């Protein structure tokens, strides 16, 4: 095991020793630098200090034994290879020190360039660069600035301020107008700033610079911002970062040098072509910092044809090698091209589908891989309406795309005004600095929400996502003045009543109305765009990948639909049945009066009359749905919500009665109603008289519904159709509840169905924790289970769903207590465990028990994977989520290696 032991203590890898699959050990940047080196691409030589070294440092507070020696050895080898010594006064080797974790992570230390420069070697560097003093002093001032800022926490503004002062003394805005003397003066100023803030001189020892920079990278893993980011993104806290030490190449040596970034395809649309930016005579960070204007990469062809051609051939090579879109950072030093970074690049949702489709066409990947490379969140994004010709409009600000969609409307600044204007039928955009729970009504009334502060986990962002409402948060270019009812942005003032448009995907904000266009992907799902006959790369790619997902998936996908129209739409979207047909709404509108009569009934006769009147109405509802879903299963849930929801609000009723009494009117009926409302008032209606409890308390209610379902099924079947009803009893916590309902239902069904051939299943929701824990018993009386994960989450966590999102979830998300709302994505460890237990024990008691899930989680990508893993038969979700669930159910199979987990 000696070899193993030495390997464990190998903390430093030369670029020639690594490869792209070693991201855990070498970080993303290091692994890809090694990969490019081994492909023979021009990468400046260097080495990577492993994440293991970082882990050891963080655990003990000091560099692990052997690290210093290994760095020394690799540095010596590097010096031999380059024929220079680190910081040599005559001809210095300079290096960059670059962090690079497995996942790219904001909040971590950035890069320090030009390590190895000091008061002596700056002179040597100038000499080696052909007496280019300007270049040498510019490089030195950058080192002090970056080192000061990132290694010693000197406030960056101080350096920027000093730079601005020199520029304004010279009367220029352009760094390039500063000459060697100016920059030498700047170095002096920077050193003073360094001394003032650190209490020590800028370190002149090259090796000390290097060691301090490496240590700072290690420590930046635990910077506050990095910790927060990891918690939110669920990145494990113990990965650590690698550190890359890379020989410097110089893009700031003159007009024949420069630096740039490039993509192998358009990350916006996925189109093939050349996309990137180039900046002549500059060092790396200038491109990103936007200090000077970059030129489109195509310009490089004119500036330096041979580097350009080489770059293009390298990009083609990389794309073929990685079999994906790559992004690239490069530098040209006096006509010589160097590759400084590559990785599989980020892309928009549309580009993800288009690129996956193209790579299949090119034979670089197969359809399984294409399916793996897209996801349901992207598909969901593509199903929102978008702004038309967005590129023809100039955004005035860009914030965070906090909740997707495109919305235009009249600007309002208060919740009250939003409600007022919305009541007049106007579209409004609620603009706030940040929202708080008092803004809830305004947020409900608004088409979209725009805030100048806050990120993806701000109150506005969390609540808007929960409501499915378009939201841009943290657009900090906008200055909101609520009392004055206006905001200013880019020198313009926008008052209440003006129109703005916001894009909740890109975070862009426009003045005026930008026309909205429907999603082509939705048109395709609805059947109005034929992928075989239109020239639309996106629709063709979506079609191809969806078809593949359908072929792969084991989970069936049903929909939640309460009306024939919803059912029909969901069927076009690919739904294979209805997993949840709620019957509550069927008791509203002009049927309310019948329900009131039912609730108020004193004598049995009154109640029966009310139920008899409701029966044909319910039967017609179910017939319509069974016809639309002809041949597919339809799960009908017996009535669930608390009865008082059907009665007028207590206060209003009390006032009405008092007024009527005053006038001496006959109020006997109103008084009876008032008494009933008082009687039924509940402190915690969510935990009160609802679901099966209601069915057991009001005689005849469930019986009427069961009869309506059975009669509707028989009617559809006798008309030549096929009805497959499944009756679902809500809120069961004990098998005795279900047995009681079942006994009565079976009698009615037998009576109605006769020999029509209709088969009616009876099952239950599993949504009370006790039901999950006694699933073995409950399965004795149930032919199917449908997990109601909304209530299961609510009761599992003790969260009142209607209250928590506005009240404190944003804070929980901000603190990283959970990375995502457990109502949005199932909490695998807690609520998921209940599902797992119920699935296992239910199936053990009744093999062949049908298992599904209804509720928002059925359309959530991560949750779909979970339901696949625990072996459910189907998920059910809202019609618009059906395609997302189909896609993710296919991905779940591909990602678990095609195995059937049951
Ligand atoms: P980030 O992770 O923020 O992209 P990098 O480590 O890639 O940080 O460094 C940022 C930029 O610094 C690079 O794009 C490159 O232009 C420049 N840079 C880094 N190392 C070197 C080097 N050895 N020679 C020249 N430029 C470098
Ligand atoms: Mg980079
Ligand atoms: Mg429920």
How would you describe this structure to a colleague?
The protein has 902 residues and is α/β, with parallel strands linked by helices. It has 36 helices and 33 strands. The model is unreliable at 1-5 (pLDDT under 50).
Chain-wise SSE layout:
Layout: H1 2-8, E1 12-14, H2 23-38, E2 46-49, H3 51-60, H4 67-82, E3 85-86, E4 92-93, E5 95-101, E6 112-115, H5 121-128, H6 133-151, H7 156-170, H8 180-198, H9 206-220, H10 224-233, E7 241-247, E8 258-265, E9 272-280, H11 285-289, E10 295-296, H12 300-303, H13 305-322, E11 326-333, E12 336-344, H14 349-361, H15 367-373, H16 376-382, E13 386-387, E14 397-398, E15 400-403, E16 406-412, H17 415-423, E17 428-432, H18 440-445, E18 448-451, H19 459-467, E19 470-473, E20 479-481, E21 486-489, E22 492-495, E23 499-503, E24 508-511, E25 516-517, H20 520-526, H21 537-552, E26 556-560, H22 564-572, E27 578-582, H23 592-600, H24 604-628, E28 633-637, H25 650-662, H26 668-680, H27 692-697, H28 701-718, E29 724-729, H29 735-753, E30 761-766, H30 769-773, H31 775-778, E31 784-788, H32 789-797, H33 801-814, H34 831-845, E32 850-854, H35 861-869, E33 874-877, H36 882-895
Parallel strand pairs: 3-4, 16-17, 17-18, 18-19, 26-27, 26-33, 27-28, 28-29, 29-30, 30-31, 31-32, 32-33
Antiparallel strand pairs: 1-2, 2-7, 5-6, 5-7, 8-9, 8-11, 9-10, 11-12, 13-25, 14-24, 15-19, 16-23, 20-21, 21-22, 23-24
Helix pairs in contact: 5-6, 6-8, 7-8, 14-15, 14-21, 15-21, 15-36, 16-36, 19-33, 21-36, 22-24, 23-24, 24-28, 25-26, 28-29, 35-36
The chain binds adenosine-5'-diphosphate (ADP) and magnesium ion (2 copies).
Residues 44, 96, 98, 110-111, 113, 246-249, 259, 284-285, 329, 331, 340-341 line the site of adenosine-5'-diphosphate.
